[in-house]
Amino acid sequence: MTKEQLFGSGLHKDGRADHDGLKMVLHRYIIDAIEESGKNLLEDSRHALSQFVTDRVAEYVSRLHLAISRYEMERLAEEIVDELTGFGPLEVLLRDSAVTEILVNGPHHVFVERDGLLSHSDLRFIDDHHVERVMQRILAPLGRRLDESSPMVDARLPDGSRVNAIIPPIALDGPCLSIRKFRKDMLKSSDLVAMQTIDQSIYEFFQESVGKRCNILISGGTGTGKTTLLNILSQLINPHERLVTIEDVAELQLGHPHVVRLETRPPNSEGHGEVKSSDLIRNALRMRPDRIILGEIRGVEVLDVLTAMNTGHDGSMSTVHANTAQDALLRLETLVGLTGRTVAEKTLRQMICAALDVIIQLTRMSDGRRCVSEVLEVVGVRDDVYVTNTLFRLDKRTGFGFVREALNPASDKLRRDPILNANG
């Protein structure tokens, strides 16, 4: 029995070549050919493997007299080489600098983000096993495991890109993969102004806030640019200061001369060895930091970071997921409640207000543009209610430009520290 009879020819019933079917047949055909050759071509150069695959594809097409163009034949050969040596259909997306995020929802649905907008790609995998093979290929050099006992993985690629993988039975419609690509060229404040994320007056306020060592919380939904803005603010910090960063997956590119970068660690296969954000915050306090930058507040570390901000580490920064600046305050309360520690509401709100000076709210517009929607000053607590002061807000009528709000003359904090006065 020939290989063609065993595997099928990759043809439609009418004799036309089916790209996906033919690719699957050729993939198995070439794997057999590599084994029969007795050469370890997968360890050889890409050029040698590419030449071998191209020759075998041409041989197969010629033998079956398939109606396929030279361009399509070369494309098939290139995709198979990618599958054998790299990350399969993802290879071309990872090389595309315009792609900022890759989302795989099962084998037949691959989405990409360009300029803040998601679109459906015509690339796809052969089946669930194909997706899982690529996942394992991505994770293997990282020493991370993805199997039934550990069906979710959050990791960082060598180039800094963030990858999240999840497989059945947790993922009901097939294995899912999310890759947030690492930006090699750091954005600058001028880029944010050009993209209308902020305007010049907001940038000048940020300069003063960072220079005066205000504790800043950046709030927003997923993909609104919280980490990007955190990077921008860090560029405004005095280069003589010592920074300690703490992240679950290291994404920050601070561009600062004195940075100590710490990263949490998940438990090993025996359930031991986990290092949490709260552990790293407590350790960071012993490292003589001038400022602590926590990538994201998402759990029990909330009390530790609030304590750090209240005990001499002014100028610290972090991010949180929330829909509005006011919601960010309530989100912190909720996270404290999830720690299991009992803190009186009045005491908790006073602690939060003492820790935070400024909340910057980010949003993503319908056209994909990310921008600051509000800058809020945290004034204090009065009658057990947060007293806040909106310094800037996005002009909701146009979606462009910012409105500088009138400041509350009763703000004690503004009188004590007039640098926070956005009106000068």
UniProtKB/TrEMBL annotation:
Classification via Pfam families: T2SSE
Lineage summary: Bacteria, Pseudomonadati, Pseudomonadota, Gammaproteobacteria, Pseudomonadales
Superkingdom as given in the UniProt entry: Bacteria
GO MF assignments: ATP hydrolysis activity
Annotated Bacterial type II secretion system protein E domain residues: 84-365
Protein name: CpaF family protein
Family that this chain belongs to: Belongs to the GSP E family.
Transmembrane segments: none
